[in-house]
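Q: Could you predict the 3D structure of Phenylalanine--tRNA ligase alpha subunit?
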Amino acid sequence: MKEQLEAIQAEALEKVEQAKNPKELQEIRVTYLGKKGSLTKVLKGMGKLSKEERPVVGQIANVVRDAIAKALDDKSEMLEQIALEKQLESEAIDVTLPGRPVNVGGPHLLTSIVEEIEDLFIGMGYEVREGPEVETDYYNFEALNLPKNHPARDMQDTFYITNELLMRTHTSPVQARTMQEYKGEKPFKMICPGKVYRRDTDDATHSHQFTQIEGLYVDKNVRMSDLKGTLDKFAKKMFGEEREIRLRPSFFPFTEPSVEMDISCKVCQGAGCSVCKGTGWIEILGGGMVHPKVLSMAGYNPEVYSGFAFGMGPERIAMLKYGVNDIRGFYLNDKRFLKQYHKA
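A: Sure. Here are the predicted structure tokens for Phenylalanine--tRNA ligase alpha subunit:
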């Protein structure tokens, strides 16, 4: 039996040496060390040996098993190392080759304009507020002095979801919600940028979805001169220190008096050209003093508090500032358009 064990060891080690892949090694392991392997079969015959021979043969069997197992493990490790070296060789990276350029995105032009406006007003003590885009008729109209059947509602073709729910037509509802939140007891400054929706035909200057930024300042003794000073600072920051502004009488249900603001044309410097249609001025936004009814409905005493409000469209500001002649460029995701305004 000793001779059998030595022969099994020699035969197994030779086959391990000749093995070329892990599959062959596994077959050798099963053939010699498995439950039905050669070594196991020999060991099953140890019952026929004398008590003196069993320990000797058992010790030899253990040596043979350990030798075969070690040879298998060593060969397996060697084959794995060879495979790894081949893989590394085939996947080698030539670090001397020039790299491929990576296209890096950047903020959308409208995002940049909104953030620039936010930074300006935050510097003047305003907080940035947000509100729901699906709004109630009350906050979108009634709380802003636009009761049911008010003719001014026709100016804002509205996407109604139900009789009382709609897609907001302006960001002014955020102003009403903020005033109600403060319960008529706290002065504040706020702006509210966001998307608004109107049933409009899309063309070069109109869109059914666009962006608005509205501002509101409520405190004691707020005057029209405060509004003018704020808007003058805004115009000079966005369009240059040489810009002049003018306020024209207008009408909005939620402000009284109401004004439209124009800026001097940067192309002709106010002399008159095709861009400003010969007037020297370009309309930019609307505003006015908060209507006493709006203050009262929100809980503020109009005998004590006053305020001003204004609303602007970032798309229009961007079009004037950068010479964009078609509002649809902001929404079509055309890289040729967007990359012109990408600030690295």
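Q: Anything worth pointing out?
A: The chain has a mean pLDDT of 85.
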